[in-house]
Amino acid sequence: MTANANNGQSLINNQGQLVGGQLQLNVANLNNASGEIVQTGSGDTVITTGKLDNTAGRVAANSANLA
Questions:
Q1: Is residue 66 included in any domain, yes or no?
Q2: How far apart are CA 43 and CA 12, in angstroms?
Q3: Domain that holds residue 43
Q4: N or C, which terminus of the chain has less Cβ within 10 Å?
């Protein structure tokens, strides 16, 4: 799963679930409050964001590298 946003755009995953074999997220703001972002595959997980709100949230990766 790849998510690319234009400058200033946000990904809102409040109380949601993003689950994929491969994750690459490129967003200005990532709000994962009480949400889950989970990668199940063994490839590198990439999350690029200017601001992250992970209050009571979970980010999990099966990969050896989380960038």
A1: no
A2: 24
A3: 2-60
A4: C
Pairing of strands 46-53, 24-31: parallel
Q: Copy the structure tokens of residue 55.
A: 């209050």
Residue keyed to tokens 């999350």: 47
Measured CA to CA, the distance from residue 29 to residue 49 in angstroms comes to 6
Query: What's the rounded Cα separation, in Å, for the pair 42 and 34?
Result: 25
**pTM flag (> 0.90):** no
| Calpha distance 39→43 (Å, rounded) | 9
Considering the domain boundaries, does residue 65 fall inside one?
no
d(CA 10, CA 25): 11
Q: How many domains does the chain have?
A: 1
